[in-house]
Specification:
Largest interface: A-B, 42 and 41 residues
Radius of gyration of chain B: 22 Å
CATH class of chain A: Mainly Alpha
Helix content of chain B: over 70%
Shape of chain A: elongated
Largest sheet of chain A: none
CATH topology of chain A: Helix Hairpins
Number of helices of chain B: 21
Strand content of chain B: under 5%
Number of helices of chain A: 3
Order of helices and strands of chain A: HHH
Number of strands of chain A: 0
Structural class of chain B: mainly alpha
Number of strands of chain B: 4
Distance between the termini of chain B: 25 Å
Oligomer: heterodimer
Strand content of chain A: under 5%
Structural class of chain A: mainly alpha
């Protein structure tokens, strides 16, 4: 019988984090980049909860995870508003095509 | 927690509470007087004045740093709060004469609300000594500034700036959060003092510690626009409304540096001896890392600024370079270096705000920040020409301006720490920066104005605001004792 321990959680969170970074680097669509960012934040959440549970650090880690969930929602709301506004002015949301500010 | 404890805690947070209450007041007044927005700037100014009163009275009362849970109230933090408040006052004045903001005057309520949101974030950031509170206040500051960067949403470059700002910002704060979670797993706490205790008592896993620390630095480096996390800076500074650009380049950067100093000088040092010198913890040598980053930052900032024709963009690169100089003060590991950072920031605030204000006045008239708009400005509008000259000379760091004193203290701290090579590189960088600042002077005084160059006249209100920035630059260049004493006084008792 497999015992689920701290290691398993850390492996999941590292995979999520790596996928998040991969998504941010490879995707051109702003929405997909935002999804990559969400993955990164959630991987940190898994870390917080897993460390709090297995390290016997009390409830702090789990409360931090709650904070981060709320914050991620706020960030996503603002980011989507900005992307929507961008779509209204440029009619596109690919990050590499919105590039007027370079000389 | 008993009641006396609670009331003490509320007493410690009076500046933050005052900012929050005025934030609510702005929202309410915006709803009540939704036809006439003229009252809003006055409420904002009143908010700043009341908060300044609380900050100053707290500065007088506190002798030793007061540690209370997630926050530490000390004079170091209060110094930065004063800086933030002064720059807020000026940015409110800038807003009053900004055509960009006037064009969307119906949303002024949101503008001031978000500005106070930024201010609240910065206040918490300079007070926090717990990584999770630092992260939350960093996000409060960032989320407000993302929206403000895209405030003039009808202009395409503004929405592009907001997009770039939020993407870079979210990625680096995500990295920072992951770093914090690793530190939490490693040390069992997010409190900086507890982290320091742990790092001193056991060596732990050095590789993970270094990885987590570098990730946390990504979040800070983004806020202070240090290379290689600076990519957003030129685009956002160019695209955002100039008032917000000025605010980002001064206040938000000041808060970022306060956070950097707090994290490094509480979490990552082992001892500070009586002479005010510090030692790095053995597990993670951040001094070397910062030396590389600061040299990289200032060299990149200065050399890229050389071929910028847009003045806003040039000032963005110049602010990157200044972040490099300021990092030098942080990395020398002495109280002298920290004092130099405090002094430099005060002067940097004056000269940078002044330069951005003049760029804004010109852009009000011409609608662009191109360097050609400045042709013959020294003759068509001598007042603006001379004022911009003083700001730029001060940014270069030449006497008799305040910028020279700031640089001088940084260099003294470097030489005292026997980092001659770094000092020489910084000096050479200053010489390079002279080129692009003087290039503006050349356009103002040696190039003739063409028929099409519009004549810019400053109103008397604008002249008074500008004089309030330029006269201190000249006065503090000669009589700088008060600021030095203020900075020294603020650092007393700082540390573990």
């Amino acid at each position: 019988m497999l015992q689920v321990g701290l290691q398993h959680f850390l492996i999941v969170s590292s995979i999520l984090f790596a996928l998040g970074i991969y998504g941010i680097v490879t995707r051109k669509n702003a929405i997909m980049v935002l999804m990559g960012i969400e993955l990164m934040l959630n991987s940190a959440n898994i870390n917080f909860v897993a460390f709090a549970r297995y390290g016997n650090f009390g409830l702090h880690g789990q409360i931090y995870a709650l904070f981060v969930i709320i914050l991620a929602a706020a960030e996503a709301a603002i980011a989507l508003a900005i992307v929507l506004n961008l779509y209204k002015t440029f009619a596109k949301i690919n990050v590499d095509e919105v590039n007027n500010l370079k000389e | 927690m008993d009641m006396t404890n609670l009331s003490e805690l509320v007493g410690l947070l009076t500046p933050e509470i005052s900012v929050s209450l005025f934030l609510v007041a702005i929202v309410i007044f915006d709803l009540i007087f939704n036809k006439d927005k003229k009252i809003l700037p006055f409420i904002a100014l009143a908010g700043v004045a009341v908060t300044l009163f609380f900050v100053v009275s707290q500065y007088g009362e506190i002798a030793e740093p007061i540690k209370s849970g997630m926050i530490t109230v000390d004079k170091f933090g209060l110094y930065f709060k004063v800086l933030i408040l002064i720059s807020t006052v000026f940015v409110i004045f800038f807003t009053l004469s900004s055509d960009e903001i006037k064009a969307s005057a119906d949303r002024l309520g949101e503008y001031y609300t978000l500005m106070f949101g930024m201010m609240l974030g910065m206040f918490m950031l300079v007070t926090a000594t717990d990584l999770i509170l630092i992260y939350l206040s960093l996000e409060l500051l960032s989320l407000s500034s993302y929206v403000l960067a895209g405030f003039t949403k009808l202009r395409s470059r503004s929405s592009e700036a907001a997009l770039k700002y939020i993407l870079y910002g979210a990625v680096s704060s995500g990295l920072m959060l992951f770093g914090i979670s690793l530190i939490y797993g490693l040390t069992g706490s997010t409190n900086l003092y507890a982290i320091n205790d742990y790092l001193l008592s056991s060596n732990g896993n050095v590789v993970i510690l270094a990885l987590a620390s570098v990730m946390i630095f990504a979040g800070i480096g983004y806020k202070i626009s240090a290379a290689p996390f600076h990519f957003w800076t030129p685009d956002v500074y160019e695209g955002a409304p100039i008032t917000i650009t000025a605010y980002l380049s001064v206040a938000s950067k000041a808060a970022g540096f306060a956070m950097l100093v707090r994290i490094l000088y509480i979490g990552y040092v082992s001892v500070s001896d009586a002479t005010g010198h510090w030692t790095v913890i053995e597990a993670f040598d951040w001094q070397m890392l910062l030396i590389v980053i600061s040299i990289f930052t200032m060299t990149l900032g200065n050399f890229t600024a050389l071929w910028q024709d847009n003045l806003k963009r040039m000032l963005a690169y110049s602010s990157i370079a200044h972040a490099g100089y300021l990092l030098l003060g942080v990395l020398v590991l002495s109280n002298q270096g920290l004092i130099a950072v405090l002094i430099y920031f005060f002067f940097y605030m004056l000269m940078n705000l002044g330069a951005f204000y003049i760029v804004m006045l010109i852009a009000n008239k011409t609608g662009s920040e191109n360097i050609n708009e400045y042709d013959g400005l020294g003759y068509t509008s001598p007042f603006l020409g001379v004022a911009l000259t003083i700001c730029l000379i001060s940014l270069t760091g030449l006497p008799p301006t305040a910028g020279f004193i700031g640089k001088l203290y940084i260099f003294i701290a470097l030489v005292d720490a026997k980092m001659i090579a770094v000092a020489v590189i910084a000096l050479l960088n200053s010489v390079v920066s002279l080129y692009y600042y003087v290039r503006v002077l050349k356009h103002m005084f040696l190039t003739k104005a063409t028929e099409t160059t519009p004549v810019v006249k400053a109103s008397s209100f604008e002249k008074i605001v500008l004089l309030a920035l330029v006269i201190p630059i000249l006065v503090f260049g000669v009589y700088f004792e008060p600021i030095i004493n203020f900075a020294k006084n603020s650092l007393a008792g700082f540390g573990l």
